[in-house]
Amino acid sequence: MLQEIKFKLPGPTDPVRVKRRGLDILNDPWLNKGTSFSDEERETLGLKGLVPPYRADIEEQVQRVMENYWHNTDPLDKYVFLTALADRNVTLFYRVLMENLTEMTPIMYTPTVGYACQQFGHIYRKNRGMYINLNHKGRIAEVLDNWPNPEVDIIVVSDGSRILGLGDLGANGMGIPIGKLILYVAGAGLHPTRTLPILLDVGTDNEELLNDPLYLGLTRRRLHGEEFDEFVDEFVQAVTARWPNILIQWEDFTNDKAFPLLNRYRDEVLCFNDDIQGTGAVALAGLIAAMRIREEHLSDQRIVFCGAGSAAVGIADMICAGIADEHSLTHEEARKLVWMCDSRGLVTFERDSGVEEHKVPYARKGEPAAELLEVVKRVKPTILIGASGHPHTFTRDVVLEMNNHCEQPVIFALSNPTSKAECTAEEAYHWTEGRAIFASGSPFPAVRLKGKVFVPGQGNNMFIFTGVGLGAVVCGAEKVTDEMFFTAAKTLAHMVTEEELAAVTIYPDLGKIRQISAAIASAVCRLAWDQGLAQYVEPEDIRTYVRECMYHPEYRPYVAA
């Protein structure tokens, strides 16, 4: 039986009943308004004399924050500054972020979050989220009870084993779940009190961290195999027991864990893996837009991948789904258009060591090729996708060889952070004399060439996962399906304007992310209700309902409880 909708958020004028008084309010980042408390609130809540007499509205506070923000020139310093703001005043933090999303997303997430994770123990100020470590085995449910909020809609969880393209960062990987949930709040309006970042600390094999006296995690080798599976299973059971409708987003697990975790739980609990499904969807959206520019079909392309991990396979799977949908082909037929390379070259069945399970669908019969350039010469691709985590693999020779047989090559250098990109935007445009359709995982600045300005597209997963997550939560989805991501990709691709396409830009302006998230969430909800996967009663107007569910950072009036 469907449940009545219970998700709508309170309005900006609905009062908050506050039990705390005085400094306890000012020291609580969820309650603190800084200088924005009204005279009545100062009187009734014991705040007189504890804040300056001038009352500033939130826009004045934003102005003051921005003045101080711009005093910081180093991206990591900006990250620390904004994190400190969130630790003081959550509402103001999100207001600042939402009004400056294009500027601050690269600070709070990639590429800066990668550097923040590397330095996490050295810049640590205050805890956000939960660390579930091996010492908690057998009592994870008890540990989760320490989280004070009884209502949590979404968890982003990582074991820190493969942070972006930086490898094993152990407990330092907590920066990723924190960052992803910040994007959920700012970009899709999930309520910040109903989000929970979690780091599963099962050790690390990073020697530098094990020898770092300021490392915050367990100083032991990483757990693997059956014991790891048992630990994660206990975690999932404990989480879903406390929050039955929780959405779990798996984040930055190594390939040998990412695929099994997704396959094990995707039909049992509400969950998805952004590295696999989100990356695939955002790449597909970019390719659909690129085909609009070239006035061609995906089924006419030859696609070479540099990288064969979770991101690459997720992208390839989603592309093949798009090709199959476009021309009523089978996935097997669509896979014939994909060539996948890893660190040992073209993935073929002729390898003496065999082919890893997740690569098998894309392994080819025939003679191996050890170098990417050799593969490009042989295949003559029209699309080149990098998801390797290895920088500079798209060399000048590789790009020129591709451009020799393709007038307008599509080049996606998707590895994060920027330092791991397969090539830069400037290289791609200069080597092709401005003919490339380029996108990257982390942002690159605009490139001026021959009197024309090229604005590189950014295949930011934020375009996809925020809307999918919002949609799944507000309709009470029972599971997240690949079709939902496919729908999200098509929705995003068709939000690229004709003006943007004319400028060879294949993704919308990131500043429109809340509109994009709302559109994707509505499409996901529509699909869930049509397929009987939603637990809540369908509203009269899905789009209106989704918008009403989105948090906006405003100060609500306080009354003494």
Task: Write a concise keyword list for the protein shown above.
single chain, 561 residues, alpha/beta, Rossmann fold, 2 domains, seven-stranded mixed beta sheet, five-stranded parallel beta sheet, 24 helices, 16 strands, globular
CATH topology of the largest domain: Rossmann fold
CATH architecture of the largest domain: 3-Layer(aba) Sandwich
Range of strand content: 5-15%
**Helix content range:** 40-55%
Question: How does the overall form come out from the CA principal axes?
Answer: globular
Supply Rg. 24 Å
Structural class category: alpha/beta
Query: Can you identify the CATH superfamily of the largest domain?
Result: NAD(P)-binding Rossmann-like Domain
Structural domain count? 2
Strands of the largest sheet, in order across it? 9-8-7-10-11-12-15
The average pLDDT value, as a whole number, equals 95
Care to count the β-strands?
16
Question: Spans with pLDDT under 50 lasting ≥5 residues?
Answer: none
Largest sheet descriptor: 7 strands, mixed
Question: Could you give the distance between the termini?
Answer: 37 Å
What does this molecule look like?
It is a single chain. The protein is globular, with a radius of gyration of 24 Å. The protein is built from 24 helices and 16 strands. Strand 8 and strand 9 form a beta hairpin. The chain has 2 domains: 57-269, Rossmann fold (3-Layer(aba) Sandwich), CATH 3.40.50; 274-530, NAD(P)-binding Rossmann-like Domain (Rossmann fold). The model has no long low-confidence stretch (mean pLDDT 95). It starts with 15 loop residues before the first strand and ends with a strand. The strands form 4 sheets. The protein has a 7-stranded mixed beta sheet, sandwiched between helices. The chain has a 5-stranded parallel beta sheet with strand order 2-4-3-5-6, sandwiched between helices. A two-stranded parallel sheet has the order 1-16. The longest helix has 21 residues, at 274-294. With 561 residues, it is an alpha/beta fold.
